[in-house]
Amino acid sequence: MALILYFILLTSFQTFSAVAQPRNGSVPVGASLTASEGAVEPWLSPSGDFAFGFKQIKDHFVLSIWYAKIPDQTIVWYPQTYPTVSRGSKVELTSGRGLVLSDPQGVEVWNTSSSISDVAYGFMNDTGNFVIVGSNSGNNWESFDYPADTMLPTQVLKRGGVINAKLSQTNFSKGRFQLKFLQEGNIVLRMRDIAFDYAFLPYLNSSNSASQLIFDATGYMYILGPNGQRSDFSGKNTSLSSEQYYYRATLDSDGVFTLYSHPKNPTGDTSWQDFFEVANVNWPYSDYAQIKSISENNCTNSCKEDCFCVVAIYNNNDCLKKQLPLFNGRKGQTEGGKALVKYRKSELQRIPTKIQVEKKDQNTLIAIISTLLGSSFLVNSVLVGLICVGFFMNHRKKASYDYPSGNVFKTNLHQFTYQDLVEATNVFMEELGRGAFGIVYKGVIGTNIVAVKKLDRVFDDSEKEFQAEVNAIARTHHKNLVQLLGYCDEGTNRLLVYEYMSNGALASFLFGDGKPSWKQRCCIAVGIAKGLSYLHEECITQIIHCDIKPQNILLDDYYNAKISDFGLAKLLKMNESRTNTGIRGTKGYVAPEWFRNTPVTVKVDVYSFGVLLLEIISCRKSVKQIESGVEYGSILTDSAWDCYQKRILSTFVENDSEAIEDYKKLTSFVMVGLWCVQENPSQRPTMRKVIQMLEGVIEVSEPPCPFPFSIISS
Question: Whole-model pTM?
């Protein structure tokens, strides 16, 4: 296929000669384009289907190739190493360097290749491939050899080829996902660590003789094996002619590799269909409404008219409506019925890519998703992708992995050597804080400041601590949780690498010299509640934190609250809601049931949050300082109840004028805190309900005395 394409291109180039200005796709040496808002004509292909030039994205410009005739003008190629430039930047076709991109000051920031010489002309093909032709009529460089996030018909991805998703629709930096054709012949779709510009490595126990991923002119993608053997990468689409439709295959920022089509001469509505059907698929934990004895058409319409509905499961005349986040997706004959998946409207129609894996003796073509589906964020991103394309519906076998010896953590985190972290922390010089099992140090990796937690004791509990942290945090992704970036498990050295929180712990913020603003404290409280709700209800494996306190809440550059220190986390299986465990936590924040040798639930975290909420409201510690081993001063929960009963909350906040002016919210927040610290766990609200009460979505009812048993005994 590559030879045929080369012959076509070669013979077509011989019919054109270099002229003063670009014409019919041909670009002479010396031609240039400048990034500006004005009407700068791009270099068009002969048919005008594709254009090469600068596309404006917000305040910046992208040197790119795009569809020129469709309204969306989708970008299909851009330089990976320097994707965006400023106004006034210039690209020029030179005789000795090929394409040269310079910034407004004339400083070169990118070129096609320093080894290119004797350039005759450039050519923008109707295939979307920009080529640089040498004086010997051979191709010195072509954009098809350096794909960005997209493949086009007639394009070939060879061993070593890489496709990187964008970070977002408007950010053309390398994103979180990468499709790579490994040298051993396997194609992998894997995650990237953006902070360290590192792609996680899959573990494989087989290699292949596959040599190319081919996207042919008809819109069919297949993997070429030995003796011309083909393995489908996408299904053949016989209903959409390539003469009437544009095709592209793009690795989107959500990690889904998608085959798109768009009519070349659109008439009528070209948007996506409203729904597509997938048989025997379900997300059993995402129901929010059920309609009985309803037709399939009415079920579809009900979901279509409901902005919360993303999927409707229709089975035996019943309609189950689902909302985001979708998690614990299941596929199998036992599920029954069909999933009616809602499409969002768009100019382009997304067509599912179908990865088919066929076994021929020991030669197995592997399409591996080396992403951890255990992570809630990743589950949702993959399943949202499924809403668009049904990506995994034809997966026929599970990939086999050969994990390295030693402790195995089911994560795709960056694994550091101990020496890496010794150097990053300057031999553990700057201490940020101390915990029950380790010390946290400040470090620098590349240009990024990180926090390195070094577990300082090596015994069974410490090993369990380490495994709990790695497995729990690696599966969690939420804006109110501290992100784990990597780890070290080398001999007796166990360390964790976290994102750095510049404003330190909430304890220092609350109990320092100055009192933070009331509005800021309210935002912090809601953020912590959302993080806990995520741990309790949205993770694939439910997590009890067990040690919620201000020292374990960190603040980022913008004082957003992030929950840290999962070292005491007690993980629950999905079918468990109670667990027996030893007493965990910190004095003053520990729920009463810890001391009764009874099973505990997520309500222990609710209790701790209640104490923390009262601290946030009052900027006072739950238990006063200790002098000569004796605690003095009233316990904060007692003080809160007393002030609430006497309607003197101004005393509780020590005459904080900003809080008193917002008396309705102040009262509501104190009432929520008192509900959370109820002695009876069943009376405490869930964290989801706590969020609703804090945000004023539901009314807060009058709380009872939080410690009735203590009053009776006194």
Answer: 0.47
